[in-house]
Amino acid sequence: MTKVYFTSDHHFGHKAIIDYESRPFETVEQMNESMIASWNQTVGQTDQVFHLGDFSSLGKEETSQILSRLNGYKTLILGNHDRDRSRSWWLDAGFQEVSGNGIIYKDFFLLTHEPMYMNRHMPYVNIHGHIHGQKYEGINHFNVCVEHWNYKPVSFEAIMEALTSQQEASGNPPAES
């Protein structure tokens, strides 16, 4: 059965991100290889992955080599560090789908790179990246940056379990799926 995963902010090839985000890697090569291995230990060949931006700072050939090694059907929502390259650049590099804007998933989840303003009356949960180790409190945001998920994609089921727990703790009804 196909599973669905979400992730963001790998920053493949970006040496400075190791220091910026206190990532537990000695070199950019170690970081890249570790994140590829973690991805493939989590995601199967037929699974779907929504990457919510800031995938790679490498050139097209190196980015393509990484994408060819990653399991799953990969959709990219462009992040702030991806937007200097065209949608066709990312498709040529190996993503199956690329969106310059957010995507509504299952009529209830707003997938974006940057977190969106969501008040408690909005009917969506914003699954996002961009803010790395930070986290918004509340039941309307869910951060899938690699720093929160041991550098691997998080399943839709795990997101639903976490949201249900948060909503039960806050006394709100569970999210729709």
Automatic annotation (TrEMBL):
Domain of life: Bacteria
Classification via InterPro entries: Metallo-depent_PP-like (IPR029052)
Name assigned to this protein: Phosphoesterase
